[in-house]
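This entry is set out below.
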Amino acid sequence: MAESDKREQILSAARRLMLRQGLRATSMEAIAAEARVAKPTLYKYFPDKNVVFEAIVAGLMAELHERFIAALGGEGAIVERLGAALAAKYEAIDRLLGESPHADELYDEHEKVRPEVRASEAAIDVMVVDELAKAGVKQPELLARLVLDAAWGIKRKARGPGEVEPAIRLLVERLVGPEVPG
């Protein structure tokens, strides 16, 4: 098995465990058993479970960023593109967390772990401000902050993944739509 395949096998096993039992309850021994690798093999790739979790988050952030950029750069008016981009961002998170009973713990931890998370979020902030400014919005920084924070709140308070996308699209329509010069 190739090195990258073995690494992905370990990350996949760790992801399943963390979703099933939470980050705190997941041990390196359990990850090794779930991945069907010897503990020395696991430690060859990851020195501790925090590094495993960081690798999972890094993969999520790369996918999230890629989907966000693709949707924001797509066709249509700013309202449609921004709504689609934010929906894609939170859809990527839903794909990782699913219906895990530990989703809140994992979501909170992902926000703390790596400078790459903060850097990706900062890059998204800048892209939103830039797109709003290009669309002629008078206070793009303030509107971007309102929309981004409200979208985050929608995701955190959602009762199910099916309600996030329509709520975010409505949010963008109601907050951004009236601010774009006609």
